[in-house]
Design goal:
The chain crosses the membrane at residues 7-30. Keywords: Membrane, Transmembrane, Transmembrane helix. The protein is an alpha+beta fold. The chain has one domain. The chain contains three helices and twelve strands. The strands form four sheets. Strands 2-3-7-8-9 form a five-stranded antiparallel β-sheet, with helices on one face. A three-stranded antiparallel β-sheet has the order 10-11-12, covered by helices on one side. A two-stranded parallel sheet has the order 1-4. The longest helix is centred in the N-terminal third of the chain and has 53 residues, at 8-60. The chain is rod-shaped. 30% of the residues are buried.
Amino acid sequence: MLYRGQTLLSLMVAMALSIILLFVLIEFFIQIQYQNTQQFSYLYLQKTLESRLDQMVRDIRRAGFQAPNDHVIASNFSYFQQANIWKVLRINSGLGETEQSCILFFYDLDQSGCLGGKNNRGNADDKKTYCIRNGHNAMGNIENELFGYRLYQGMLQTRSLQKKDVDSYCDEKTCRSYMSEDQCNQGKWENLFDKNAIRILSLHFQPMADNRAVLVQLTGQLIHKPNIQYQTQAVIPLINLWKDEHATTPRFH
């Protein structure tokens, strides 16, 4: 019986098909790797922005909170309140930034019943707390309870006032100025993202529900992969500004 081997032509065809299949497989794995990388980058951006949005939601929701304190004789909240519908919150914008991209607010972080911490002028009676004395604020560390968020040159920043930025022994006019429109351009602010990793494209605070809530919209992108973008938003009820007539306890959480 006569056995015939493979011809050179059939061998070359088989090799060509094998090479083509190899290239197809390589391209497939490259695409899978690219998609995985893109998906990982997107999830990183999503997680990072959602985390900061959650921080803003929890913070802004506390605006206007004042802990009940039977020892407080004279509250100082009125010294910082603004002549707007919210009184303890202001929406504005920083210089050169889009409208409504900055929010300022305050609340009783240490739950002392006043704005600020330990009295810097002391009390005549240790059992009583006078937040105001002789026409001036009597509480120290007010910088720790003045908050804010803003868009600044492609970055989300949080207000981080220092002692040198405020006068804790302020009179009513000076105290109120720490919540004025120009404060979006004053004092110390800190970045909430790595400026080499993430750029914020937009930040917008929109009053809604008859000013009983604020809609926050946040959009960002990766610096080295600008095609990867993520947008998120949340509605924040201002529970301490508009209390139900039957609700008498301020909300901190």
